[in-house]
UniProtKB/TrEMBL annotation:
This is Large ribosomal subunit protein bL21m. Belongs to the bacterial ribosomal protein bL21 family. It comes from Zymoseptoria tritici (strain ST99CH_3D7). One of its GO terms (molecular function) is structural constituent of ribosome. SUPFAM superfamilies: L21p-like. The lineage of its organism: Eukaryota, Fungi, Dikarya, Ascomycota, Pezizomycotina.
């Protein structure tokens, strides 16, 4: 099974220990986490993959229409109007809504989380040895020592199973 944790893919099986490259906030050792962002389930021979990501959305303002001012009738005074979505829509075109702050939200599509159960237990927090990096500026005698000690969250996959058809149809929530 391949799951995404904070946008990073991890290939996991039941019983694996995963060292996440960051300190997960708000968890303590012993907490149970449900992982619900899976890209594919199964093995190399038989796998259930997530559907394809949604197509790229196109803005309906790809063209403008020039309108001549009827009062003067000259080409010098004209306005450029954006077409409405009904005029610009063609067959099979998906239009993006306006003011979307981040269009890359639909970059990944995931398997429906009702089809599987994946639970992990936080086993602890690890920290690397203290790193000391010396930073200098040109033509300066002063040496600045930057210290860093990163912490990592360790999780262990406790439960990983694909639900049967009867479990999915019954609608039980795990």
């Amino acid at each position: 099974m391949t799951v995404h944790i904070h946008g990073n893919p991890y290939l996991i099986t039941e019983g694996d220990t995963v060292r996440l490259p960051f300190l997960m906030q708000g968890v303590e050792p012993g907490d149970v986490i449900r992982l619900n962002r899976a890209i594919n389930l199964g093995s190399r021979d038989y796998a259930l993959k997530a559907p394809a990501a949604s197509p790229k959305m196109k803005s309906p303002t790809t063209a403008t229409v020039s309108i001549v001012d009827p009062t003067t009738g000259t080409l010098a005074t004209h306005s450029r109007v954006m077409p409405t979505s009904g005029l610009a829509a063609t067959e099979g075109t998906v239009h993006a809504p306006h003011f979307v702050p981040h269009l890359a939200k639909g970059k990944f599509s995931y398997v429906d989380d009702r089809m599987f159960v994946c639970r992990a237990v936080v086993t602890g927090v690890e920290s690397e040895p203290m790193r000391i990096k010396e930073k200098t500026k040109r033509r300066q005698r002063h040496v600045k020592k930057v210290k860093s000690k990163h912490r990592y969250t360790i999780i262990k996959i406790k439960e990983l199973r694909v639900k049967s058809v009867e479990e999915i149809e019954s609608g039980e929530v795990d």
